Amino acid sequence: MTEALMTSWKRSIISLFTQLLKLTCKAESMSAGIADLLLGQIEDSPAEQVVAPGASCRSQIDDFGDGSAEPPHPIEMVAAALQ
Domain of life here (predicted)? Predict the structure, then answer.
């Protein structure tokens, strides 16, 4: 492989990693923004127990919440009530 081709490959790889890093930062920022909305709704809720059907919601509550355990799926609560 020629040196010019190697240089071109290196530039392409660096460019791809730079774009990936930018996308990752945007995704984390968006996730934090959604978590703020979600946590605000939880705080305003009169409910005693938080449940979340989606894996993303449970992860965001766990990551950005008060440090307590990840909330259960609603079906887990139904199963516990039936025992």
Answer: Archaea
